[in-house]
Amino acid sequence: MCYSDSARPPLPPVVGGGAADQGDMTLTSADGTKFMAYFARAAKPTGAGMVVLPDVRGLHQFFKELAQRFAEAGIDAVAIDYFARTAANDDRSDSFDYMPEVQKTTPENIAADVGAAIDYLRSPDGGGVQSLFTVGFCFGGSNSWNQSAAHPDLNGCIGFYGRPQRAEPSIAKMKAPLMIMVAGADQATTPEQNEEFVAKLTAAGVPFEVHTYDGAPHSFFDRSYEQWKDACDDAWRRMLSFVDQHRSKVAAR
């Protein structure tokens, strides 16, 4: 688990006018599964949209607030849950027994749910965005990178402290650029694993950029970690720059 109930996403350094609207919603996946999500519409939209892929907790409050932060930066956003097919209820608080549900997920179902979020963001209700990105954390970080293969018309896929071994099977099909955000003191992933991932991406010709935050722990992207404020600010700047750089490539329809 990356984020507890007390965790809060860092504020973006550039605010684009706040969120015009936000709230819980239900999306429908390709197999008919209805799953919970959370939307945040930018008051001053840039034409970019972001699908937020949570950690192992699913649609926890942290990720709802992160969607709001993206909207404040001018990026329409939707955060999704993973567990509608198996979980008994919609509780994603600290009491949620997430690991049995994580083990029941499949890359195909996650990609289908991301597809439903993409369709929403492209619709008039979702902002009619012209460029689309994903961002994820830990379990969601790897899942975000995987969308480069599952949805190659994306403009980019950002992952914080993802597990490379969960994304490596998708490398051969990856098309959308990756942003790899590495916690230098991550106890879950070794430097060697990250280096091997980068080498495999290079060999496959996948466009990517990698940023390592020396000494930072797994889940450093958290407003309650005052000692990592500079790293959080830098991560925000790099994400927004990545979006600005790649949104000029309008996603194929």
Description of the structure:
Helix content is 32%, strand content 21%. It is α/β, with parallel strands linked by helices and 253 residues long. It has an eight-stranded mixed β-sheet, sandwiched between helices. A hairpin with a 5-residue loop joins β1 and β2. The longest helix is centred in the C-terminal third of the chain and has 18 residues, at 229-246. It starts with 18 loop residues before the first strand and ends in a 7-residue tail after the last helix.
Q: Which descriptors would you attach to this protein?
A:
single chain, alpha/beta, 32% helix, 8 strands, eight-stranded mixed beta sheet, 253 residues, 7 helices, globular
Question: Poorly predicted ranges (pLDDT <50, ≥5 residues)?
Answer: none
Q: What is the number of helical segments per DSSP (H or I, 4+ residues)?
A: 7
What do the pLDDT scores average to? 92
Q: β content, as a range?
A: 15-25%
- Radius of gyration from the alpha-carbon trace, in angstroms: 16 Å
Global morphology: globular
Tally of DSSP β-strands: 8
The main sheet orders its strands as 1-2-4-3-5-6-7-8
Run of helices and strands = EEEHEHHEHEHEHEH
Q: State the oligomer.
A: single chain
Task: Give a brief rundown of this model.
This protein is of the alpha/beta class and 253 residues long. It is built from seven helices and eight strands; from the N terminus they run E-E-E-H-E-H-H-E-H-E-H-E-H-E-H. An eight-stranded mixed β-sheet has the order 1-2-4-3-5-6-7-8, sandwiched between helices.
